[in-house]
Design brief:
The structure holds three protein chains of three kinds. Chain A is an alpha/beta fold. Chain A has a single domain, classed as 3-Layer(aba) Sandwich (Rossmann fold). Chain A is built from seven helices and ten strands. In chain A, helix 3 (about 100-110) crosses helix 4, helix 3 (about 100-110) runs parallel beside helix 5 (about 145-155) and helix 5 packs parallel to helix 6. The chains are: A alpha/beta, B mainly alpha, C alpha+beta.
Chain lengths: ~230, ~180, ~850
């Protein structure tokens, strides 16, 4: 479903060339919960950015559902981010000025759909995540776990092909983290494809498949699944 | 040492004969600790000598008599004292891998690094397995003992994580000395 | 950490990092200081040069006797000469003349008593003039004239050459008998001076039997005061005896109004500069996390305030120094133009050198620094509200509340109330009340501006709420986000709104004020000047004091002899000195004038004008004179005539904008009787019905072709010219408006840029979850447009009020109560459009910047 063919990414940092990703070929199947492990600087975030269309590879090809992510315009890439991909970040990255329900609705609001039409779906999602009481709260009024659950709702609102998570619990305590992982796991069991980047083995262990990156290249691919 | 208290703990709930005791033990902490029948009976003998447990004989048809073990007053007191006291000694570092590390020369780090890699993958696989077991457990069980099991599983995960982290550090430090040379 | 270390390590690094904002703030302050400095320099240079010219022309004379502009009888000379203690008393004619050929340059002709004058003034004649002109030669040949060497050189005139000069008698030929070295009076006025014998000058310039001035030198041992008193005693009322310095002071007083308007402009410029400083400092206060960090590390509140103020001092010293140099350059550039304006409005001046003192420049620098510190003090004080914890928390909500707090609301309400009080007072007192002065007007304006400025956050909040209710939904996600973003940082956005508000209010107010004045003046011009052709000798548009050479009254008959001319009505104007005020005396032929023209009468009956004025000792006065002297129809007014003070009856009070210091209108017959003057400055020619105006005009020009130089203009053209001139005189206001708008634009750019930079992460998030670049730009542009619109609306409302205050305060005194306030709706529409347009323009760069945000970098930050 997601396919990387010889994807490489180089960029300049302080006048020196950094090879963030070297010739990575990877096939992520539908319904997979892929954990990407590796020390910092191993290129795992770059991989996620490429899959999510936040960045484009220097060379190689990337496809989501057969559609290329390479060599397309910024606007096309933006639409893929908006419609095919859901992001979850370490720092939640909610807009502080918007309420929970507004944050969740944002990707569809960007389509130009009136808020009144999106709201019911957004509220339903929030309720599903146990945030029924928090619909009108602003991020600053929510706990870390709640913020992350709002972020998950935002990622899900457009029924994305893949949910991308970048250290989703890096800022949460163990118990809250576990709750978030169980949530992700249950989403995965309902068929949601998830790609999660983490350096925490405990987190990675939730995956149905764990790959490890080392210096921008694939080094381990453990695929046992727990079913 | 802890085997003794585990058995006292099991008997404190219910009187059991040796076989039942083993099953209960396996169910509760088997994930971390496996005992054979011999160990069970030798421990029971020792406990009886210390007056911590006693037994009744149960007569059976066609089969030899069975000993039903129960906890004594003294035994219950000792168990309570043990439960209330924190553990003074830090967990002993008696990992087999550590011994391997001691005996592998660091002059040629290639094999060590390979070993570390393999070991890490192994741990990760274990964690992956354990995590999925935990999820499965969480889904089906609502019985109170499940929480204890879950916590034990968590402990296992944390330990494995610590091992992985330690191995990663080993890797980094060995590599660093390599660079220096 | 030592304070200066802190300043050096933290603040100065900031200044470097926020180049754009710092530069804009420096620019603002520099501009304010520059305009202040240049106005100061230009003003003192002009006055200094006037003083110099007066001193040179006066020579050794310590006292001067002057009367009405039309001059006074020669007989007074003997009376003055007879006063004990007088050493010499010499007569002088001082008048303008034009060279008929060449550059048609105007110059000043001094008619002096050639036998006596060298006792008071030094003349040195160039060596080239072989025979030093004999005074007797001058007496014998009335066509003799002396020019300065400078002027002769410039015009290519040699000794003994004949030159044609425009005089009252028409073109006259003079012979240059000699050239004067640049010394004494010959050095005054840039050398544009000619010396003639007084009798010849009287004849040539229609001043027979009259002199303009008596220069008096006194015997040793006599004090000026006793001499002044003695001379005063022998002269009729209405004469002025003053020292040359006193005359300079008079001119200074005359120029005070001019100066006042210039000062207002520099004040505005400085105010805008203060706004920019305020803006810069508040943004740094809101934005800087390191205040929190410094506080957490143990920096005291006082140290933080001092840090900001010290930063401001550094910036403002640089800016003010820059401003002073800019001011010098500006003064150099504008001095000629200003000197010309002053020449045409008040007194002939020729400025060649800039006049300034270091002390004054230092003063300007200090004012710049001081103003900056005041502007910075407000936001710097609010920095103390930043708690150390905010170093750790990144959401800057708490810093915002202070601009909406109670104290500020009360303060804002107080200021507006004060402005309201002034407005109510203005409404309830008469137009000439002394309460209506520049001080109260300026105060009311400042109160209003301050009050509204302080209320901008509140207004912006309402405005955005309204926007969110009615419009945001239609603009999609961008609109909603823009509204929310603005709301999030009310205080900073309010500063941008205030900047727009400020400049828009200035432009709307001046547009409305000028519109009112312009309409009033245009209506006036149309009503008083209905003739077909205008005839003047000088340039028809030159106003009071400018070089016009009058024409003899008898020309009226000559004009009427031209076929097609129905009547030629004379018009004469001169200035009277009535208790220290320069009042314009307009002389018309009342019987003829009323046939063609009307005037607005505020008090009195129209029939009385033609019944009581011609030939009788009656006048009409305009509102300004009436208000100043408390006159009503039936009262009387004492006017200084060449024969001493005479009492005239007041027939009516009329509207006249002819002079800003008062107008008295008199009939020609009355004037001739008392002043024994028979010249006219202008003839209004009416063409017989059915006659062709261009043809009549050509016929007039033909008839006088070789006799005199004069301007024969169709009235329509004349009126159009006057209106054009009127518009041109408001150009300064337009320039200031443009300037403030540009500065407001800068304010918006700075604000938006800061907000874009601060929101880098948010923009990254939005881009990550699928916001297109164009959508990101749209959000910023919408924000910008909203700021512009809020500022524009507020500015328009304030502008209408300020315009009214200005008209009532400043202009009422100048023009009288008959000017009705006309709100200039066009300018409001334009201002709103401009505000929004400008804001959008200002938002373009920040929008581009926002759209270009690198998503991955934005997200990895923190």
């Amino acid at each position: 479903m997601i396919e990387l063919k010889h994807a490489s990414k180089k960029y300049q940092q302080g006048g020196r060339e950094v090879h963030a990703l070297r010739d990575v070929s990877l096939n992520i199947r539908k319904g997979e919960f892929l954990s990407v492990m590796g020390p910092s600087g191993s290129g795992k975030s770059t991989l996620l950015n490429l899959i999510g269309g936040l960045d484009q590879p220097t060379s190689g090809e990337i496809f989501i559902d057969g559609r290329p992510l390479h060599g397309i315009s910024d606007d096309e890439l933006t639409l893929i981010r908006r419609r095919r991909v859901g992001f979850i970040f370490q720092f939640f990255n909610l807009l502080p000025i918007l309420s929970a329900v507004e944050n969740v609705s944002l990707p569809i609001l960007l389509e130009g759909t009136p808020f009144s039409e999106i709201r019911p779906k957004a509220v339903a999602l929030l309720e599903q995540m146990g945030l029924g009481e928090r619909v009108e709260h602003r991020p600053e009024q929510l706990s870390g776990g709640e913020m992350q659950r709002v972020a998950i709702c935002r990622a899900l609102i457009s029924n994305p092909a893949v949910l991308l998570a970048d250290e989703p619990t890096g800022n949460l305590d163990s118990h809250t983290s576990e709750e978030i992982f169980l949530l992700l796991k249950s989403l995965n069991e309902q068929g949601q494809t998830i790609v999660m980047v983490t350096h925490d083995p405990k987190a990675a262990a939730y995956g149905t498949r764990i790959i490890t990156l080392k210096d921008g290249a694939l080094s381990e691919d453990i695929s046992i699944g727990g079913k | 040492m802890s085997v003794k208290y585990a058995m006292l703990g099991i008997l404190a709930e219910k009187d059991l004969h040796g076989y039942e005791l083993k099953s209960s033990f396996d169910e509760k902490v088997g994930e971390f600790w496996s005992l054979n029948y011999g160990q069970i009976y030798s421990t029971l003998d020792r406990l009886e000598k210390e007056d911590l447990v006693t037994h009744d004989r149960q007569v059976q048809d066609k089969r030899p008599d069975r000993k039903i073990y129960s906890i004594t007053k003294k035994g219950r007191k000792e168990l309570d004292e043990w439960l209330a006291a924190p553990i003074n000694r830090v967990r002993a570092l008696r990992d087999e891998f550590f011994i391997k590390l001691v005996f592998t020369g660091t002059d040629n780090p290639g094999p060590v690094l390979d070993l570390i890699e393999k070991q890490k993958a192994l741990y990760l696989r274990q964690m992956n397995h354990l995590t999925h077991q935990k999820i499965a457990l969480k889904k089906k069980a609502k019985d109170p003992a499940a929480l204890t099991t879950e916590l034990l599983m968590d402990a296992g995960l944390f330990h494995a994580e610590a091992d992985i982290k330690w191995l990663t550090l080993c890797e980094a430090k060995i590599k660093a000395t390599l660079v220096k040379k | 950490m030592n304070f200066f270390n802190l300043l050096r390590r933290v603040s100065l690094k900031h200044i470097r990092h926020q180049k754009a904002r710092t530069i804009i703030a420096i620019f603002g302050i520099a501009l304010g200081v520059a305009s202040m400095t240049s106005i100061d320099i230009v003003n003192s240079s002009v006055i200094r040069s006037l003083e110099d010219s007066i001193n040179r022309i006066t020579g050794r004379a310590v006292l001067q006797v002057t009367g009405a502009e039309s001059g006074f009888p020669e007989s007074l000379l003997e009376r003055v000469q007879a006063v004990p203690g007088v050493e010499y008393a010499v007569p002088m004619i001082e008048t303008n003349a034009n060279l008929a050929a060449g550059s048609e340059r105007s110059f000043v002709v001094l008619g002096v008593d050639v036998l006596q004058d060298n006792k008071v003034r030094d003349y040195s004649v160039t060596d080239e003039s072989a025979d030093i002109p004999d005074p007797l030669l001058f007496l014998a040949k009335p066509d003799s004239i002396l020019l300065t060497r400078e002027m002769a050189k410039r015009e290519g005139i040699a000794i003994d050459q004949k030159i044609q000069v425009q005089t009252v008698q028409g073109l006259k030929t003079f012979t240059v008998r000699g050239l004067l070295e640049p010394d004494g009076p010959a050095k005054a006025l840039g050398g544009d001076i000619a010396i003639m014998d007084i009798y010849a000058a009287q004849l040539a310039f229609g001043k027979e039997g009259r002199i303009d001035r008596i220069d008096v030198s006194t015997l040793r041992g006599e004090t000026l005061d006793t001499m002044k008193a003695r001379i005063q005693a022998v002269l009729p009322e209405g004469y002025n005896i003053d020292t040359p310095a006193g005359r300079t002071r008079q001119i200074e007083n005359l120029m005070a109004r001019f100066r006042k308007s210039m000062d207002l402009i520099s004040f505005m410029a400085l105010f805008v500069g203060m706004y920019l400083i305020y803006n810069t400092v508040s943004i740094s206060v809101v934005q800087r996390r390191e205040i929190g960090i410094l506080r957490a590390l143990g920096t005291t509140q006082g140290q933080i305030i001092r840090l900001f103020l010290a930063e401001t001092v550094v910036i403002s010293v640089i800016a003010s120094l820059l401003g002073v140099f800019l001011g010098l350059a500006l003064a150099k550039l504008s001095i000629t133009a200003v000197a010309q304006t002053v020449s045409s409005m008040y007194a002939r001046s020729e400025v060649t050198e800039l006049e300034f003192s270091r002390l004054n420049l230092l003063k300007d620098v200090c004012i710049g620094v001081f103003a900056s510190i005041i502007a910075a003090a407000f936001p710097a004080r609010s920095s103390t509200r930043i708690v150390p914890v905010s170093a750790i928390r990144s959401l800057p909500y708490s810093a915002d509340a202070h601009l909406l707090n109670r104290t500020l609301k009360i303060l804002s309400a107080c200021f507006m109330l004060l402005a309201g009080v002034v407005i109510i007072i203005y409404k309830s007192v008469g137009p000439a009340s002394s309460i209506r002065n520049s001080t109260t007007t300026t105060a009311a304006m400042i109160f209003l501006l301050l009050g509204i400025s302080l209320a901008t956050p509140l207004f912006l909040r309402w405005f955005i709420q309204a926007f969110r209710c009615f419009l945001a939904a239609r603009l999609g996600a961008g609109g909603r986000l823009a509204g929310l973003n603005l709301q999030k940082n009310l205080s900073r956005n309010a500063v941008a709104v205030a900047a727009v508000f400020f400049s828009i209010s200035l432009s709307v107010s001046s547009a409305s004020m000028i519109n009112s004045a312009r309409r009033g003046l245009r209506d006036y011009i149309d009503s008083v000047e209905r003739s077909d052709i205008i005839i003047t000798s000088g340039h028809p548009l030159a106003s009071a004091g400018a070089p016009t050479i009058p024409m003899p009254l008898s020309m009226a008959r000559e004009l009427e002899a031209v076929p097609g001319v129905q009547s030629a009505d004379p018009f004469r104007k001169l200035f009277l000195n009535i208790s220290g005020k320069r009042v314009l005396l307009e002389i018309i032929d009342e019987l003829r004038w009323t046939k063609h023209n009307t005037c607005t009468i505020t008090e009195g009956r129209r029939e009385d004008l033609s019944a009581k004025m011609p030939g009788q000792d009656n006048v009409v006065v305009n509102e300004i004179v009436a208000a100043r002297m408390g006159l009503k129809p039936g009262d009387s007014i004492v006017l200084p005539t060449p024969d001493g003070p005479k009492r005239f009856g007041v027939v009516a009070i009329i509207v006249s904008y002819a002079s800003d210091s008062g107008v008295i209108v008199m009939d020609y017959r009355t004037y001739e009787r008392h002043w024994r003057d028979n010249v006219a400055d202008m003839f209004s020619v009416y063409v017989k019905p059915g006659s062709d105006i261009p043809a009549v005009r050509a016929a007039i020009q033909d008839r006088f072709r070789n006799k005199r130089k004069m301007f024969v203009l169709p009235s329509l053209e004349f009126r159009a010219e006057i209106k054009k001139l009127l518009d041109r005189s408001f150009v300064m206001n337009d320039a200031v408006n443009v300037l403030t708008l540009v500065i407001a634009g800068f304010g918006i750019v700075v604000t938006l840029l800061a907000s874009v930079l601060e929101r880098t992460r948010e923009i990254g998030i939005l881009r990550a979850i699928g916001m297109k670049r164009s959508q990101v730009s749209a959000v910023v542009i919408i924000e910008s447009a909203l700021l512009g619109m809020a500022g524009g609306l507020l500015g328009s409302a304030a502008g209408v009020l300020i315009g009214w205050i200005n008209l009532e305060g400043f202009f009422r005194i100048d023009f009288g109560s008959s000017i009705t306030y006309h709100i200039h709706y066009g300018s409001i529409a334009w201002a709103l459009l401009l505000a929004i347009g400008l804001a959008v323009l200002a938002g373009l760069y920040p929008a581009r910047r926002a759209a270009k945000t690198n998503i991955t970098e934005a997200l990895s930050y923190e």
